[in-house]
Fold each of these.
Amino acid sequence: MKKSLFLTISLVMFFAMTTVCSTVYAQSTIKVGIVDTYTGPPTTFTMDVLDGFKLAVNKINAKGGVLGKKIEYATRDEKFKPDIGLAMAKELVLKEKADILMGTINSATTLAISDFVKKEKIPFFVTFAKSDKIIGEKGHQYIFNMNENTAMAGRAAAIALAKKPFVKYWIAGDDYEYGHAIADNVWNNLKKLNPKAQKVGESWWKVGEADFTPYITQILAAKPDFIIVATGGSGMVNFQKAAKATGLSQKIPFYQHTAIELSVLKPQGQNAPEGVYGTANYFFYYPDTPANKAFVDEFKKAYNREPRIGALSGYMTAMFIAEGYKKAGKINTEALIKALEDMSIDSPVGSLTIRGCDHQLELPMYFGVTKKSPKYDFLVASDIQVIGAKDYMPTCEEVKMLRK
Amino acid sequence: MIPPGILSQIFVGLSRTTILFIVASGLSLILGVLRIPNVAHGSLYMIGAFTAFTVTKIFGEGQAAFWMALIIAPLFVALISLIAERGMFQFLYEREHLMLLLLTFAFSLVFGDLVKLVWGGEYKSVPVPAIFQGFVPLFGGLPFPIYNIFLLVAGPVVAVLLWLLTNKTKIGKIARAAAVDREMVGAVGINVSWVFAIVFVIGCLLAGLGGVLVAPTVSVTLGMDHNLIIEAFLIVIMGGLGNIWGAMLGALIFGITQSLGILVWPQFGIVFPYLAVVVVLLFRPTGLLKSTW
């Protein structure tokens, strides 16, 4: 009895040692730790980030990896909770020895991890969180933002809306940070660009509000020219359905950030309202270039669905990691960061650059309006107006001021 | 004469009340008779909505599809609840409420992940059936969605059916008796276990029905359960635990204070129904109507 116990213990220890050793000696890979929400509503967006990233990694590894090393990744589900997310990030860095972190869809988690990577000197690629603090006042040299934030989206929308003849604006939205941030950023920029714009009222509903009809009848009675609707997540679809049912979409035009995006329009099929203004960073059908087509085909072949915005940020994160190390010529964090600054590489939407001063990816923003299409069984964005990254991103000086 | 704006807002509030009432009455029924604070009630509502999505897809999104969903989805939810009741809850009726609360909470998590596995994380949308599409100008030309008129009719129909069930049928009478004194009902030779099963299933069926009815107006998505369950519990508490008419009254107060609150102060419209709950509980801590607890 005693003997067998001793045997088991020594066996367990032997295996434990070999696995420990293997992780120590097998630094022949580049390890990327991904912390994101993989349960609940946010999966609508996070799965695209992961799948886009996987697609690129498989391609890179098939070609022999980066400087002879394969990219390896591990995912952790933060369950949309900052404390869990931070613990996962720590585990990935300290135990799994991740060289790079990426994620998350939760701004609070992202900010928590941001503090941690600053101390640990680990590059962190932000793929979906929208808080402008991430790259603004809380930004530092280890953080890379691969998507737009509320400040950028708001400014881009304001640039496009300022050219329209609307005067009386109503502001409505989900009563949480994202909603208020989008609304404030659109409105404050719009007022600067078009001094004639005036606000006639506001309504705010709770996140996850199921029925918008009472809000809409109230807005209709006030007769504004235009409504800025700052909804996020499933509220996007909920509002559009209510706008269609009440006839709001035919009477008063309105804007929602990402209203023209596939995740909002596809589920509604032909029943989505036409004439809704929105902004988005990516469409699988626009720009109609061979590069984008090739990316869409590859993505569709692998996952049997069209890529959305998250897919692009996931894909580009892997591409930038690979190209960054190649340019640096060695697997070294500081060298990677230096290499990535002001680096441009080709992407499905044209050449993209990571701005040196704040590590923000310069993505073009598309402003458009929903319209039925003969080609698809769902509505698409039409009259697309491209707003260049340089026009809607805060300037380097502004970012410097924020980071003080 | 009430201004048309307020009138319109009241009716919108009433139609919103319908879904809240249907779901909350199911919750209240289970709470009153079985004494289970069923946190998974919201999940069953969500499953109802997702099933409605699948059924309308299968039947080609036409007119008939919606009516099929209205029948099939609640039955499907009822089936799930029957399995849960026979397989699990029937052994736990004597346990403490806190235990049951935790158990049903666990169920809500399990159901949430099952829904994700079956239907995926994407938003789903159920189209409004063709005859209910669009809106009619009512109350001084303000548009009123036709689907909301349908809801305004559906609410009272369900209420009447529930009244008939609890007051005019034998099972309803037994259930009411069992709610007061379970052992006594058992002592006169009635199989209480099955009565409880039927009541549980009917309560859950109402959750499923609420899910189908709400589906055309919202995006069917993960997380819709959590939003609803809190409101449903507040309504049940406000109305009096276990009292179906209390649930109706609570839903009415909840829906109308919200829609009128929006009219008065749109920035803070969300506060009003919760304020109403506070006021009610301050003056009537056991709820507006008689609680069965």
Note: The CA atoms of residues 26 and 206 of chain A lie 50 Å apart.
Amino acid sequence: MRFVDEFREPELITKTADEIRRLADPQRHYRFMEVCGGHTHSIYRFGLKDVLPANIELVHGPGCPVCVLPMGRIDDGLSIAEQPNVIFAAFGDMMRVPGTHGSPLEHKARGMDVRIVYSPSDALKLARNNPDKQVLFFAIGFETTAPSTALTLIRAKAEGIRNFTVFCNHVTIIPAIRAILDSPDMRIDAFIGPGHVSTVIGCRPYGWIAANERKPIVVAGFEPLDILQSIVMLLRQMQENENKVENQYKRVVPWEGNRGALKAMAEVFELRPYFEWRGLGFISQSALRIKDAYAEWDAERRFSVPGIRVTDPKAAQCGEVLKGVLKPAQCKLFGNECTPEHPIGALMVSSEGSCAAYYNYEHRKAAQLTQLTGVSC
Amino acid sequence: MTAAVPKIRFRDPQVDMAHGAGGKASRRLIDGLFAPILFGSAPAPLGDAAHINVNGTCVALTTDSFVVRPLRFPGGSIGELAVNGTVNDLAVSGARAQALVVSYVLEAGLPTEILEGEVRAMATAAKAAGVVIAGGDTKVVEHGKADQMYITTSGIGHLIPGLSISPAAVRCGDKILLSGPIGDHGITILLARGELDLEADLRSDTRSVLPLVEALADAVGAGVHWMRDPTRGGVATSLNELAHDCGLGIRLAEERVPIRDEVRGACELLGLDPLHIANEGQFLAVVAAERAEAALAALRAVPGGRDAALIGEVSEQPAGSVLVTTLYGGSRIVDMLVGDPLPRIC
């Protein structure tokens, strides 16, 4: 398959892994944070940790939109959908995320009209096709998905579609990285920058990480070779004592970002003064809300929203895992009370969440493969 | 004397879609509720068909319900699935289907044209599979109480001589064979629903796998240790069940698993794992290592078996789990499907 197989070529991967081994100082321990949940998923799916030397540790970052969404927001969204004649539409990612009284899928099993959509414009299509219903689109995601929500709202307004609203939970990546860097227990040497987000915002917004925080950052693609190559680039910077923003994902990410997408976002959204992140707490200017000009399509203004706040169970150590202080398996609940089937903490919910990825692809391997060398019986 | 009270471990408060998706939740429902109440304290490993003794003759018996939307899709329809599914469940339990009985649950308002089309599809599929449809039953429910039509087929078959399959027969070093490319059915259905605005030139793989199973039995007989058709939950779920039942590990070489580019592409776009996608015309077989080449050659010689592949082997570790390895030395554990496969967007 073109544009995929080239980046999974075993020979190139082995070569790049050799290069990493050559560049990495064996006396030193490296901690690189992959900001984006898509990277976390790839790292586990392709077993990249098996390819890397032991002194390069990958720490999973906050870039999983489902994971950082507080449970209260899900409760709020579902409470709107409990009103008669409402269709609740969301990405597949949201469907198993638990609210206080169950996930959207469990609400569907109890009779709520819940639809999985592939894009916000599919939700708008639902509204067109069901003029006697209200369609609520539960919007999540970083700058990756925010432009398509913005374009959908622009179209809804242009077409005068009144039975469509957006419950906006879009967040922005830079404040989350800042929160992690500001955390006192932060011990990250460098960053693998988010690929999809950067197709929209470009590479410029990461400048402060290199200039002020003196940490290298390389924006990377999602294939095994992309991730390994970005590690080579980080190691080279460290060897040269440099701190730069570099773009490994040039085939997709323009340095300046996507002007059209940014323009659509600026037309529809403005920054919220603050927003709660699951595991990280309140972060100022870290999320988007819908501007007054689109108030009619803003579910938070069209409907009465209870504004539910739910504190995470005390035993769940999502915040520490999210900041890279703890590994998933070091959390007290991991694998016993908290599993992908019955997630308690947010990171166990999405396949991009570090706990779910670790659980699905790694933890039994870690437990059982310690003696797996030359198996025979 | 009082009968022992079976221990019910199923604690989910309500039935969810996941309980029917063939993955972990389905297994929990069967092991935790159905098995203890219906089969008592010592249930046999849950195979695709029950083998029962009727006056000294061992026969295989199975049943399956079909609830697919849309009813017709590229490569097949609910009628063909209903015949092939039950024929295949019997085949992978080591039996040749003799006769089927069929139950229809029809929604009032279903156009006769659609019903007739599906009944004809069943007749054609039964003829192709060499099985008789011996009887049936029809129920009609009010409009809105069912999704057009549901079909249940139950089948009886005689055992194929020379085969003796069970998880207990599986040994370390055994090889794992797959009859052909995976994911065609599941992705075809996903796309046929038209909700994703994606198109691909794909057809469901629905077919009887009996000719392939018989070729395998002819070629290696008792060298076949286990078989399963990886329907809902896909190859990953079937192999996890095997790993669980036999207490050994399964190691798959990712690059050896045959997958069409269209299926891989759709899975990449939607964030799905092809190993979790449903198949309706493939089966997995575990065969003794020294018979693996002969088994593979036999499968490949059957029309429709050209893409059969040796995809992995049984090992001591990781006990009870499935490990997928890549060409460059990476590896990952692949679990049973949790719930339905959902597209991943953000």
Note: Residues 325-362 of chain A form one domain.
Amino acid sequence: MTADFLGTTVAAILTLVVYSYLLRDNPLYRLAEHLLVATSVAYTVVVTVYLVLIPRLVLPLVRNPAGRFDLLFPLVLGLLLLAKASPRLGRIGNFSLAYVLGMGLALAAGGALVGTLFPQSVATMLPLVPGAGLTPLAALGNLVIIIGTLAVLYSFTFVVARREPTPAVVEASTRSPAAIWRQVGRWFLMITFGAIFGGTTLTYIALLVGRWDFLINDWLRPLLGL
Amino acid sequence: MIECPNCGFENPTSRAFCAICGERLPQQAAPDAPPPEPLVAEAPEAAAGEGDVAGVEWLLGEGEPPPARAAPDLPPPEPDAPPAQAGNTFLPAWLQGMAPEPEPVAVPPSDWTDALDFSGLPDWSPEPVPAPPAQAVERARAPEPDRAPTFSTEMGAGLLAGVQGLIPQRPALQLRPGTVPFPQGPEPAPDGEAADLFARIAGGGVMPEAVVLPKAAPRGASLSHLLLLLAVVVPLLLQLVPGLNAAIFGAPPPLRSAAAYAATVEALPAEATVLLAFDYEGGMRDEVEPGVVATIKHLRALGTAMAASPRTLNLVAVSLSPQGTALAERVWAESASPTLTWTNLGFLPGGPIALRTLLAPAGTSLNDVSLLIVFGNETADVQRWIEQVGSQLPGLPVLAVAPAAAETALMPYLASGQLDGLLAGVPGAATYEVNGSSQLGAGWRRIHAITTGALLVLGVIVAANLRASRRERAS
């Protein structure tokens, strides 16, 4: 038995142990669960130390301390972050957190504006008249996109309802163009949520089939010599 | 003598409260009446014959003479007077076992309770307050033999008669009426023993037996369960028989997003650097990795001399996820080729900040990169690259491999041109293998099992909804 196949066997047994939870909670499942958490944390620590801290911070500072003054800044911020472990000195670590969160949020917000909001808004400005390379079917698709975008946006407008609306007001409000428009927006939302749900279901079925494939083709067949 | 308005007991005139029930007695004495004479025990034997007095004696200590008090003449016992209590039955239950056995003596007169007064109490003791009604006293006087011991909060009789209020009473345990006390409860079941015990202590009494409703087996539920079982078993069977998938289902239909993906890879220049972002994690491996492996195999095929126009490709791997580094090495180990060069930059912490360092002049320049392929765990992983890198380098083609769950959210980027191709889950990978890279792999091996499972789950959803709507109509 090679080392690779030994690892495959361990993985297969752990997979079956995790599936034993389908019968009921049991110590073996708990063992596998704790093993997963422990190895994940340990692996992350090792990766961070050996791929981030040592090559990108420690070694440059040791080899060329005078030329890498810029690395002192993340070093100090990192050390301040350790103060979060102390209830008394925890406030000192807020400086590091504020810097990291501020930078991250600023970049994320800027990227969302430039990379999603503006381009996606522009992408909804579509031609509707067929011709000049636009087929009638594509024009219809563009129309659906525009109607869906506007209807969904309008469905998120909220107004204050009258305290005691009369039946006539209720009927008028449900049959008004605004209400119908809002209802169309809700239908677009429901269709989108349904598509997301379908994709999620497909993903989890794929994960299940992937495990079957692993157990049968990667483990059982070599184990039984088939 | 003063008759108690509550229980009718004849109390001496010196008493302010009834000796039996503790009720406040009507004041009949004249304002100028002399104070009551102090009691003096007539004889130690006579005092010892009374339960209360005996209790006082043994509590005070044997041999210690009682305080000298003048005793009034005791009237003869009345026929309807309460009988003298032998022993210490007037004592609280927790003191009865400690008291000595009294000697049988003659029945004292009915106003034997005059032997008790409160002159011996300290000055700081508060004024006694009336006790509860006489029913409680009767209950304490003659407890039922078959009744479980309960805690009485009254002190209208016995040693502490009339001194209620000296110690504030708080019920330590209060049972609901009709509940069965702890000693008479049934043995608790092995499961939930602590819960039953708590219920009894807390006053809940014996928990009623759980009502087991007859299990109805509606047709819809059985069908749902059957379909759900099939959704698990059928994919397993399809995996057991290789080649069955293709025989039954044939090739998957082409997808436009996968075709665009393959076309973008094919369009690489003769010498190109491809940046591969391994941002998926081990838990999503079965869903994402078929597309990843198919992509690497396609790139490897482009570098061979058998390709129509052989390319020199440099693959650069980077990961914003700690696990991505190991997964990249694993994929490369399975798909390594001498026609490709491989560089793994490793893990870049910081998310969007790390991506900006890739764009910075001092960092690794992305200007030489001809193609960016993101292997993401979820929508946000791909979005991050599009927003931070794709928006800054508009000419850089961006491809993505993501789970099927992310497809709906990523399609707008594909439609807007920010994504040039997308492989969504195993279906996308299978389509790419068949129609794009022309190398069959895990995607092709699994696609039909997934399709079958998805159809069966769809059947479960339909059956469950039909059942729910039928039940709603019936109700």
Note: Chain A is about 75% helix and 0% strand.
Amino acid sequence: MSDEPVIEMRGIVTRFGNSVVHDGVDLTVARGEVVALVGGSGSGKTTLLRHVIGLTRPAEGTVSLFGEPLFAGSAREQRARRQRFGVLFQHGALFSALTVAENIGFPLRELRVVTAREVRDLVALKLAMVELEPSTALLMPSQLSGGMIKRVALARALALEPELLLLDEPTAGLDPDRSEAFVGLIRSLRDRLGLTVVLVTHDIDTLASLASKVAVLAERRILSYASLEETMELDHPFVARFFHGEHGRRALARRGEKG
Amino acid sequence: MTGDPRVIASSAARPGAAPVVRVEGDWTLRSLASRAAEIRKELALAGGDADWQLAVSRLDSFGATLLWHAWGERWPRELEADDALKATIERVADAAAVPLPEPRSYTLIDAVVALGRVQLGLFDHVVGLVRLLGQLVLDFVYLIRHPRDWPLFEISANVFKVGAKATPVAALVGFLIGVVLSYLSALQLRAFGADIYIVNILGLGIVRELGPVLVSVLVAGRSGSAMTAQLGVMRVTEELDALTAMGISRTRRLVLPKVVALTLAMPLLVLWTSGVALLGGMVSAWMQLDLSFGFFLDTLPRVVPIANLYIALAKGAAFGLLIALVACHFGLRVRPNTESLSANTTASVVSAITAVILVDAVFAIATRSIGVPG
């Protein structure tokens, strides 16, 4: 398999009106890595993720996915590139007019090459993957609980067998118990499918149990990009607040017990 | 090892043995997508009875599904593959074995039930509208007793939104309708030498009938749909629930200002649109029939009794009340999904226009002896 980086960002500058959010952000994510993007609120974590998805374009700098610039090539090539990653949006972003099964099968159907029977079996498989009962297939998104919405959204993100999974606040709004189960699920899927994962999170529990690398976004750039242990030794007010606060210490202590 | 997915079938090594099928290449959705139909055909040709060798470089769940279906959803007699590949196929097999619940198919009984539901739904709408109207009356009584609670700011904002901002489009439509009506009537009237009756036709037609109905259709499409969509989105984003949680009455805060504003603004819009439509008719009559503006304006009050204007204003207020009421009724019924939002917005506009025309007919009968010269 090629060893070109999955995501490569060079000199990203983002401005909203007069305020500069990113000023020269560089980030390279290698294959198989699980990168957690952390930063204070308003530091532009989600914006950076939206640049990777291609929902917004930075004022300056380039974003490359799988070794090619995000917006290079014909519309067909760009679409093929988009099918190589799956996104789990913060609130799930399920299509509210479609059932759970239709939501998961939607990207497959849109390819126009998968038969109805194959879609049915693949939907059943994805439902089993995210540990949902087959009986949820006919429910509408408005009938689902928060945790179930995340699971269905994850199943939909995995529908096209992506190599890269982008998660925006995967555990926000879930109670600790559900959140832990969901993180476990993501971890097992990552191991089984060999995914590269980039997640934006506020939750130190999620980060501690999932991330292989931590990218700290502060002062409008990537302050550090290293393993969790190395990141913790960083002398910076944000790192001190985030990792060495009361909650952070407890979460990391738990991790120590487990690991 | 990587490469395009391939199916290589070879005949049996010795007589009596099964043929051997070898599968190679990259069996992922991305590689298979471009030639899925061919692959499916080749797999079907190879058949489930053969011995299979899996020498694929990668296999994802789509590739596994293709194989599983080609085998007729059971394991082939001989399968040469490493454990990881077998595990992938096994997961597909396990999932395929669990039936997903199917949506029920549509039967005759469902048709009857649907018909009944439509009728009950109609009843439900009438009850809902009456209840909303009753709630508004109660709110009104409350506000008369507590004058400090009037949502004056919301009312004035709504008057601006549904009234003042609608004047340009209402003027454009009114002017053009006036011109067209006058032009077509003039062609006929000239044939009879009854040119001056153009004033009667335009005056009575526009002031009494066309003005109010035209504005109602316009407002139902413009403001009625906006009201339904706004309330509907507030339901989707749980803003309605937030209001209730604060103990603020949603009818008093959201519905009442809209209803009051539209009831106030509609007569003014009717006046404005009818005026511009008459202007359009006047211009057309002057060009077609050489009728001077002075003559037109002199004759108008004589042939169109002032009662017609009062009827028009009353109609405007009634239609405004009706449109806002229907729009809010449907807006509050939106369930939190996009399908419901679009269905209710459509229903709101269609019902409002239908209701306006029905009430217009009632007005026509009730006022048949008022304001008609003769």
Note: The interface with chain A takes residues 28-30, 32-34, 36-37, 60-62, 65-66, 68-69, 91-92, 94-96, 98-101, 103, 335-339 of chain B (CB under 8 Å).
